[in-house]
Write a structure and sequence with these properties.
about 290 residues, Multidrug efflux transporter AcrB transmembrane fold, Alpha-Beta Plaits, 4-stranded antiparallel sheet, elongated
């Protein structure tokens, strides 16, 4: 009952985080990866490269970023294979033992197509999950209509996606390499899948208690609070297991996966919070507002 009694505090915290995330997204914007914006990503390594000044002078329209292991990541507009080979020869003549670790070049048309498909996939997942929840709870029409479960699930999914997205915008703006790319979309979809699972656990306990007539003589908010108490240990323990794995992966895994893992890590924590402290309180508020 503690969560339901203090629902405005928890909803206020979520509101502040969502507002800050929306502000970050619109103010800072996203640094788009080449798979969305198009361009060339080139990673080279040589013990003779002491700094990035020469690379920045050679590629004035590019951004050069040092990477762990003594390599450099060059991000530039799309170049042809002929330009790639010419530049590689110049670098190899300037720096002995130069090694090319990665070269990716994607045209803007392909990048736009990938971006559009990612957006449609994200929207399709949102709609599909909401419809499934509404269908799964179709027999629960009192005291809250079944479609409201679906709408509230949709709201919590937006909540769980916006906060990691806002974090990514800030990290990208600060120059730590976080980008809006395919990996980011996959991470958000993973977060949404985990979050909806947690939300369903709580909603299903509410449905079961309603079906069995448990708490028929108590207010709906009391039944929801008791349902949260019955499921909170399972939700937290499941999330904690995943969080521990992600923390180890973040500190011990490949640097290339840092931001991917960070989005899932933050999203998992936020998703657990929303399934317990946002979804169910919203359900009680909507019920109290009337039978809409």
């Amino acid at each position: 009952m503690y969560i339901i009694k203090n629902k405005f505090i928890f909803l206020g915290i979520s509101g502040l985080l969502v507002a800050a995330s929306i502000f970050s997204i619109f103010y800072f914007g996203f640094r788009q990866g080449i798979d969305f914006a198009g361009g060339t990503l080139w990673q080279i390594q040589s013990e003779n490269i002491s700094g990035q000044e020469f690379l920045q002078e050679m590629f004035p329209e590019s951004s050069v970023m040092p990477v762990e292991g003594g390599s450099f990541l060059i991000r530039m507009p799309e170049i042809t294979e002929e330009q790639h080979q010419e530049s590689l020869k110049v670098l190899q003549s300037r720096f002995s033992g130069l090694e090319e670790l990665k070269f990716e070049s994607i045209g803007p048309a392909i990048g736009k197509e990938v971006r559009d498909r990612a957006v449609w996939a994200f929207l399709a997942v949102l709609v599909g999950i909401s419809l499934y929840i509404a269908f799964a709870f179709r027999k629960v029409s009192y005291p809250v209509n079944s479609w409201k479960y679906g709408i509230i699930t949709l709201v919590t999914l937006f909540h769980d996606a916006l906060i990691p997205a806002g974090m990514t915008a800030v990290i990208g703006y600060l120059g730590y390499g976080a980008e809006l790319n395919t990996n980011f979309i996959i991470a958000i979809l993973v977060v949404m899948g985990f979050s909806v699972h947690d939300t369903i656990v709580v909603f299903d306990r509410i449905r079961e208690n309603l079906r069995l007539g448990i708490g028929k003589n108590e207010a709906f908010s009391g039944l929801v609070g008791r349902s949260i108490q019955e499921t909170i240990n399972r939700s937290i323990n499941t999330s904690l297991t995943l969080v521990l794995v992600l923390v180890f992966l973040y500190f011990l895994g490949s640097p290339a996966l840092f931001h991917f893992i960070l989005v899932i890590l933050v999203g998992t924590i936020v998703g657990t919070y929303s399934s317990i402290c946002v979804a169910s309180p919203l359900l009680t508020l909507w019920k109290r507002s009337g039978n809409i």
